[in-house]
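Task: fold both queries, return tokens.
Query 1:
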Amino acid sequence: MAASTLPMDILVQELLPRLPVKSLLRFKCVSKFFQTLISTPEFAQRHLRHSLASNDNRLLILVRELLGVYSFHLDSPRFHSVSFFFPPEISNVFGHFFIVGSCNGLVCIGTSPSSLLICNPSTAVYKQVYCDNCSVVNSCVNYGFGFDDINDDYKIVRVKAYMSNVDYFVGMRRDIEVYSLNSDSWSLVERKYDQDPIKHSENGTLVNNHLLHWMFWNPSNEKYRIGCFNLRSNLWADDVPLPDYSSETDSNVHSVDVLFQTYGNNLNDLVKLGVFDGCLCLLTENSQDIGVDVWVMKEYGIRDSWLRLVSIQDTGFRQPFKICPFAYRKGSKSEVLVRMHPQSAFYWFNITDKKWRSAEMHLASAYPEACMCKESLVGIPGGGHFQVQVLGSCQQERE
């Protein structure tokens, strides 16, 4: 009996796009056919759609100033954790790494006040992006990274605020600059005066790939608001409503405005925007020095869709707002990957029985900044290759 042959359309459209990037990169060495197929933008997009729709192939990207960048495969422990090594002109001269954000498998990392990187951790490709150095006295810079799907363009947003004095809540001028990967250039899209200031330690929170969010403070009415910047239009969209705290029966739940009246300018550690399970999330205090509430907006833009997912109790840290949730455990909606402090290890927190267990990620505690990223084959025009080190042995850049 003759051996059956797998139809080519099933192989190309259904099976290959479901494989991890590491396997696909190996397949490129098998034949010219695979090399050509897997290198096409069309295949990369097909693979990305499968990756985003699944709960697999998630990377945890860790960054530390001077130490560099480190990646851990959250869903496949058999895949080695790796350290990234960028060219000496980046690592030696700059090396002050910080995370801007991630989108479609690409990660944006700051390396200095005048340099950023867009890199793909899965394919070891990067591009350096230069910008003017805006280290000016009484100035504050916030970044954001995302994707303009209308123009098929990855963008970096830089929000520069020039303060009238050292008071964080007094703003004078705000410039919005947008970098386009397609044109490899920056453009000034907005300059306004007397604008509400952004929380100075926060970079933009990305939802739906094209909507960046920052927490603003309005000094005139002493209220917080969530501002939204649309990468499709390079314009500000309508504000996103905050949760309706008045509907909460728990007296320990405080609105962000009440928190400000209590903590004033120290509110940076008490209110934080983020993304959890693809949804906009908000971390607020539920009672002084006790813990943090994790709010999730299940339907974007709908105030009534805010859900208080879980309250995570402080287990001894003086600042409970260092608690940060990242993702559900693969195949589970009861365990959440959390970090209790920027320089602590990661833990799995069971939202049902409130129990903790170590996530056992080697070296993770040495890297204070972290973000989630999906594996992808998305290319970076004009990009070069960086090296990775796997389990103590140096692996040359992937072809």
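Query 1 returned. Query 2:
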Amino acid sequence: MISCSDDNTSTITRLMEEQTQAVQSMPQATDSVEPAETRVSVYGESIEDIDIDLTLLGPTMVSAQVFWMMISPEEFLGQTVRVRGSYYTFFWYEANKPLHFIVLDLTPGCCGQAFEFILPYNIVADIGYIPENAVIEIVGVFTNYEMFGNLFHYLAVHEIIVE
């Protein structure tokens, strides 16, 4: 433990200077390297008119917006949504189909929220395999389908970015 006496103050100053010099002597990146990402769009161009852009909101507002969309889905049908999160999939055996989800990255220890999304066949062919837990961003239209007497809401993907 170090107290604030004159001897210790000079020790603290010396340690801070040594750490500063060590950081400054570290090799600096000369070229900025962009992370590789794959962007695929259904129509070959990005959608400009986004009705709900969840990527611009903080975790609390994202959580509130998604909750509102889930309890009042009829208010949002047909709206274009942009969302960013982690990719997750599982196979629904009763329906004999894979389900794709984007799990929203909210505050740790809080409730998880996700959107199901459906990729058109031309995107599936272009994008290929998406690794589990990959960070993705999708733009899609909020819509629904009925299966086994239940109504399911999802995003019909127009564009996907896999980072």
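Both queries returned. Flag for query 2: The first helix runs from residue 6 to 24.
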